[in-house]
Design a protein that fits this description.
Length: 452
């Protein structure tokens, strides 16, 4: 039976996306061609725990003064985030006048000229090219550092309002979160995550939608919708259904995944590095089949095993090496992506792996020079990250690791969109930690990540 499947058009302040939503107990293991959200390597889908997606929910309604709704930056077809291709399509269809395009956070600065089509293309360049929203945060008054210098290509950023260009995190798979937002600024309670999600919805409505006030019942309703969404890749072009042959891929299996904050934390006893078990059933037999589907499944399995067990000499990661007092930590991908079959960290662990370092800066990013008030030491970064929330020098450049399920739907990657593809993500880690991956290992890791 196909009961529980919906084909709808989500309308959010002018954005339109065709959506297929999984729901109910009869969602099929194998999707027919054309079902789901098509992407470069297959299809992805969303399972709705309630069985139906209520498109009258405040998530889909403009609650502020600028026409924005949550759905503008959180499109199901784009992994409940936004992608450059999706943003460009909306820009081209509306000449950059859709509510997605607003100067309070969508443009390169709040003072950007948007009076003509040409001006809007320039003003919204970061949104169009990398799917980046501008987050404006000032240096806290009690910070252990000052802003020593700014190199902002958009001639706006200052100590009271740094321009931080970040990817909108997906508004799905939320029940597995231990930290809300890249810098954790919406993690008000360490134990009551639903309250954190309500707080985040409130701040987003006041900020992104420029509302003058919020309704508590509406914010609660947004939280309830978001925490009932589970999104993953569902079909792989080579391997077929990701829940076939004993595999545990797909969003309905994810919805049934047990989780508690702190599960399988590598900083605690009883850590199991074999955190990913989705594709154990696809282990190649002694006599391997040679058909395309089998070869695709074997590649995904091999990638999963590399993710669990490929040794990584973890060095220079602030928040990890210094916290444990170890210059080198021998780990694997699951040292930081430890939540079983989900892939984020199961407890709050902001770390700095160097994504915002000056050495990785591109010309379209501002560069900030920060000076330690006590030692006089300086550091350059494109985004101070967690430090703008805590004011701590040690937190400069720290971010949380996002949930990995549904990755293929929402490129580009990292907080600043600096990795255009999953192959680029693997290349970053291979270079950053001298993993010495072979070409075959890189391909297998990419195959696994694409199947999440």
């Amino acid at each position: 039976m196909m009961r529980g499947w919906l084909l709808i058009a989500m309308l959010g302040g002018g954005c339109v996306a065709d959506v297929d939503i999984l729901g109910g107990d009869d969602a099929p293991d194998s999707l027919a061609a054309g079902n789901g959200t098509k992407n470069a390597t297959g299809f992805g889908d969303t399972f709705v725990a309630s069985g139906t997606l209520d498109t009258t929910n405040p998530f889909f309604v403009s609650l502020g003064t600028n026409g924005r709704a949550c759905v503008n930056c959180h499109q199901q077809a784009q992994g409940w985030s936004i992608t450059p291709a999706g943003v460009k399509a909306v820009f081209d269809a509306t000449n950059g006048t859709d509510p997605l395009f607003r100067t309070n956070d969508g443009s390169v600065s709040p003072t950007a000229d948007v009076s003509t089509l040409a001006a809007r293309k320039t003003a919204y360049a970061m949104l169009i090219s990398k799917g980046l929203i501008r987050v404006g945060i000032g240096i806290p008054t009690n910070a252990e550092f000052t802003l020593d210098a700014v190199d902002d290509p958009y001639h706006y950023a200052n100590a009271a309002d740094l321009s931080l260009f970040r990817r909108p995190l997906p508004s799905t798979n939320l029940p597995f979160l231990a930290t809300v937002m890249w810098d954790g600024r919406e993690t008000i309670s360490a134990s009551d995550m639903n309250s954190n999600f309500v707080h985040q919805a409130t701040d987003a409505t006041l900020g992104h939608a420029q509302a003058t006030s919020t309704n508590a019942a509406q914010m609660q309703s947004i939280m309830q919708l978001e925490t009932g969404l589970f999104t993953t890749q569902t079909i792989d072009n080579r391997a077929g259904s990701l829940s076939a042959g004993g595999a545990k891929g797909g969003p309905q299996n994810l919805a049934n995944q047990a989780f508690a904050i702190g599960d399988n934390d590598p900083l605690q006893p009883n850590f199991n590095p074999n955190a990913m078990t989705l594709y154990n059933a696809w282990k190649p037999p002694t006599q391997q089949a040679t058909d395309n589907v089998s070869q695709g499944r074997y590649a995904i399995y091999r990638g999963q095993q590399l993710f669990n067990s490929k040794p990584i000499a973890i060095t220079g990661v602030a928040g990890l090496n210094d916290a444990l007092g170890q210059t080198t930590i021998m780990g694997t991908c699951t040292t930081c992506h430890n939540t079983p079959n989900v892939g984020n960290h199961s407890s709050s662990l902001p770390i700095n792996i160097g994504i915002a370092d000056a050495s990785r800066r591109t010309a379209d990013m501002p560069l900030y020079t920060l000076r330690n008030k006590v030692t006089g030491a300086t550091v350059q970064t494109t985004d101070p990250g967690r430090a703008l929330i805590t004011g701590r020098w040690a937190d400069i450049g720290k971010f949380k690791g996002p949930i990995l399920r549904g990755l293929q739907l929402r490129a580009p990657y990292f907080h600043n969109g600096s990795a255009a593809t999953l192959a680029d993500v693997v290349a970053f880690y291979n270079s950053r930690f001298n993993m010495n991956l072979t070409a075959a290992e890189k391909a297998d890791l990419v195959a696994f990540l694409q199947a999440l």
